[in-house]
Write a structure and sequence with these properties.
The chain is α/β, with parallel strands linked by helices. It has 19 helices and 12 strands. The strands form 3 sheets. Strands 6-9-10-3-11-12 form a 6-stranded mixed β-sheet. It has a 4-stranded antiparallel β-sheet with strand order 2-1-4-5, with no helix packed on it.
Length: 582
């Protein structure tokens, strides 16, 4: 809670102003029944019309001031709660930017989305309720009860009985529903995951005619939330009956005992009238408090989930004295072992011990699950090793400033992302101040110029979100060009030419040699043709180094590599190649 409230920031002043205005509003409202009793006792019963006008005018002033204070309090409450929610979103988003991949895996993307939307909305609504109703209601309750004590101590004891009853009833309901709401928001994660997966893969869903299956899966996730909400709301519905029992009990007791006191001359008609007003104010404040309890109950689960993100520290700690310069593009894996913390606990990589000289072109090949992507992720320190060390430029990657390291290690993924905007804007993600000429040069190197020039708007062509209006091969080439603009010391291509034909692949590799000759190039590929001309090729098998040698030597000495080569040569090849004739 403390961590969440620290996000209030500059809106503390608005919060305090709201509390002050609410306090003044309550004071004005509490004085109205008192003025009513004066009108009855000193005006009507004594037939003193000037007194009625005098006290009536004071009542109008109090009512007008109460209206102004209430409206001002509402304005401050809206500003404070909206600002609080905005700060929470910014803090969570900023925190997520510092997370390593393992941190994100821990929460899951749908889980983080739920926290930034549903959970923060719940907290925002609860916060507004707290600074308005949770201030108004207790003050109204206290001031009303003080006024009741001033009128009749004996009748005021009636409220204590009702209060004890309500505290027990509402407290029991709150404890039970809090547990249910904690489960509800976990189910929201499942619902968001279902939506995200369906929308992301909508083309696959439609191509396999699986709409009905997806509808049923979504309906199941939605039904789980529905059932839990019905259970929780069913319990919360008991608040009103409990409140009505307390209200009717107080009215009956005050009417009965108050009538006796009037007959005995211990109470005036005006005092009994104002006492009924204070009873209703007191009990309505209790009802408002019950609503606050409901909101707080719902929001506490959200507060805990938000706090989990804010309290989470990145697995990738910055060094105390970071290094801001990388000498060269050499890469060394010294007996590296790695496993995903959120996985099965099994080592993904085991005792990797390889050494890559600066400027070398290295190919990596291996079966699915052999650890190819995991290996290259360690170079840019997207994860930290379990044991051993990864050196870049002769220094452990954990010694570098993270921004410095990642600016010098460019990664092009197989499923890389383009953002909504023009082609030029997407390219400049690699280098913010890149000129158009630099972008054109990088696109020629990535063989992207040939399709960009065919677009009517050229480099000003707008890319839809996720690159939906370009093909897979075009998207990969734009992502390669974006990485080349950075002119990194190390370039990693993680199967990022899988969607381009072999002829284009050859053009890209040739351009690499001319455009970035001093850059270390690490290429993960499924096609041997993409890495055959590499200086050396790493063969991975179940997270271990099976071989690390040239194409020719591997063909002569390594069975795994030879089997892959023969299976690919025996097939039909790419559309622009002729398969071997049998």
């Amino acid at each position: 809670m403390k961590k969440v409230l620290s996000c209030l920031g500059k809106y503390r002043k608005d919060t305090l102003a709201c509390i002050a205005m609410s306090t003044l509003e309550v004071i004005m409202e509490i004085l109205l029944p008192f003025m009513t009793s004066l009108i009855i006792d000193r005006g009507l019963e004594k037939a003193d019309l000037p007194a009625v006008y005098r006290y009536g005018l004071v009542m109008v002033v109090f009512a007008f001031l109460s209206l102004i204070f209430g409206a001002t309090a509402g304005r401050f409450a809206a500003k404070a709660s909206s600002g609080f929610a905005a700060n929470l979103r910014e803090n969570i988003y900023g925190k997520i930017q510092t997370f390593s991949f393992s941190n994100i895996d821990k929460f899951s993307v749908p889980g983080l989305v739920t926290r930034m939307t549903t959970d923060i909305t719940n907290v925002q609504n609860a916060f507004m309720m707290v600074i308005r109703m949770a201030v108004r209601s207790p003050l109204t309750l206290i001031f009303s009860y003080v006024m009741c004590l001033m009128i009749s101590v004996k009748l005021s004891l009636t409220f204590l009985i009702a209060l004890v009853f309500l505290v027990i009833a509402l407290g029991t309901i709150m404890v039970i529903t809090m547990r249910i709401f904690s489960r509800v928001f976990k189910k929201y994660d499942d619902l968001n995951a279902s939506v995200q997966e369906n929308v992301t893969a909508i083309r696959v869903v439609k191509s396999f005619v699986r709409e009905d299956y997806e509808k049923k899966k979504f309906a199941k996730a939605s039904d789980n939330i529905y059932r839990l909400f019905v259970k929780a709301e069913g319990l919360l519905a008991l608040n009103n009956p409990a409140m009505m029992v307390a209200i009717y009990f107080c009215i009956i007791m005050v009417s009965w005992l108050g009538a006796k006191q009037i007959v005995a001359g211990e109470l005036t008609t005006g005092e009994l009238t104002s006492l009924f007003s204070y009873i209703m104010s007191l009990l309505m404040s209790l009802m408002m408090l019950s609503m606050v309890v409901v909101m707080i109950t719902m929001s506490l689960a959200s507060v805990r989930r938000i706090s989990e993100v804010l309290d989470e520290n990145s697995d990738l700690a910055e060094p105390k004295d970071p290094v801001y310069e990388i000498k060269d593009g050499s890469v060394d894996f010294n007996h590296v072992t790695f496993s995903y913390k959120t996985g099965t606990g099994k080592d993904v990589l085991s005792d990797i011990d390889i050494h890559i000289a600066s400027g070398e072109t290295i190919g990596i090949i291996g079966g699915t699950g052999s650890g190819k992507t995991s290996l290259v992720n360690l170079i840019s320190r997207l994860y930290d090793v379990k044991s051993g060390e990864v050196l870049v430029g002769g220094l452990d990657v954990r010694m570098y400033d993270l921004d410095t390291l990642r600016k010098n290690v460019a990664v092009v993924l197989q499923k890389n992302t383009l953002f909504s905007g023009t082609i030029l804007e997407n390219l400049r993600w690699g280098k913010e101040d890149a000129t158009k000429e630099e972008c054109e040069t990088a696109c020629r190197a990535a063989a992207a110029d040939e399709f960009i020039d065919r677009f009517p708007d050229g480099y000003d062509t707008r890319i839809e979100r996720g690159g939906a209006n370009v093909s897979g091969g075009q998207k990969q080439r734009l992502c390669i060009a974006r990485a080349l603009l950075r002119k990194p010391k190390i370039l990693i291509l993680d199967d990022s030419t899988s969607a381009v034909d072999t002829a284009t692949d050859q053009r890209i590799r040739k351009a690499f040699r001319e455009y970035i000759p001093g850059t270390t190039k690490i290429i993960i590929a499924q096609r041997i043709s993409s890495i055959a001309d590499a200086d050396r090729i790493l063969v991975l098998d179940e997270g271990r180094v099976n071989a690390f040698d040239t194409h020719e030597n591997l063909l002569a000495t390594n069975e795994i590599y030879k089997d892959i080569y023969e299976s690919q040569q025996g097939g039909a090849g790419d559309f622009d190649e002729k398969g071997d004739e049998k």
